[in-house]
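Researcher: Next entry: FAD/FMN-containing dehydrogenase (Chitinasiproducens palmae).
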Amino acid sequence: MNLLESLLEVVGPKGLVGADDAEPLLTDWRGRYHGAARAIVRPADTAQLAGVMKLCAAHGISVVPQGGNTGLVGGATPSEAGDAILLSLARMVRVREVDTRNDTITVEAGCTLQQIQTLAASVDRLFPLSLASEGSCQIGGNISTNAGGTAVLRYGNMRALVLGLEVVLPDGRIWDGLRGLRKDNTGYDMKQLFIGAEGTLGVVTAAVLKLFPALRSRATAWVALASADAAIDLLARCRAACGDALTSFELMSRSQLDIVYQQVADTRDPLDGTSPWALLIELADSSHDAPLQAMLEDVIGAALEDGTALDAALPANETQAAALWHIRHIVSEANVRFGTSVTHDISLPISQIPGCLAQTERRLSEAGLIEGAQCLYVGHVGDGNIHSIVIFPHHVWARVEDRDARAAKIGTIVNDTAVQFGGSISAEHGIGQAHRGELEHYKSDVELDIMRAVKHALDPDRRMNPGKLL
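Model: Predicted structure:
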């Protein structure tokens, strides 16, 4: 019996993807990585997935897990060699349990983030992870990349939102860690091994996720600023005045906003369009009558009075607030329309953000690497995560000689500067295949040895998502 026949026996006819439907799954979202696969398999449940993993282990075949294929570092795209199985979790969409008394929901890995948000809302709860790709990204991928998003400031990233996991190991064994416990001091926290591991240690098949009280009141503001320094000052004020009600604090450069307004017809600047920086701030509370609007107006009013803020717009209703969030969420799509981005997902101590960005842009300019390009900045400044982007218009990039070398030189300056300012080269996008060499450059030998030891313990044959992370 050949491989396809064996796989067919495990997953049935619906579990194999035909050649006509394969191409979107073999190319990453931005079209930068293209691969091939022996077969694309879509198991319907954990038992089928375990059967596929046992079959691959017996034949020494590598496995590339894939969620919604919305990642930005090529972590879910197989290599061009075509010697691996691409394992899609798209059919594993069962909601196993909703426990409102424990404030948890147990879902399979193929559920989209938006489905989970909607289900939580239907039982008067909140699942707070929020991403631009939430309509198509899958929770298994969110877990495997330790996704962040716009509400990390208040709720934390996926590491903070997961209570338990079910994982199929490389040899096909199933680890059932689906426990809805907030305290379990019985040794190593096994789930944390797989959160952020990018599918290199096993396949996440289900998760117990935390739920929170539904948010019944919000206050949103769009604030114009003269500098990134002013954003850091205003963040401190908002934290002091608003406490846990401060949910989002999103910073965007004028260069980034101008591209959004140029490329996306249903967006417009809420203010006069001249300030170098803008902030999108949101407060939220589970109480209907929380005085959020007054609280936000007081903070911003004081900032306007002393010159920390230049101008501000506070939406009068949910439709206007949604329009502001649309500007923030459409950034990636606008950039794809405009040109080719050399994108970096750095994390910094909050106090170091202004100095690092200024130093990075100065070094890029002095090196002659950004002629004809623009430097864009957008990020979750409240948790120190800034997306530093060098974007070339399509016609300019087409004339660049040795594009890979240019992108690599830009990346070296961005990442070197971030590390010099006490930061990290990846805050939420992960390593994938895009940054594997950089990880080995910036991580210490001790850290790499520990990571390799964990990898060898769980995947000694190195069959899980080869060419990614390590």
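Model: Note for the record: The chain has four domains: 3-88, 95-213, 217-329, 338-428.
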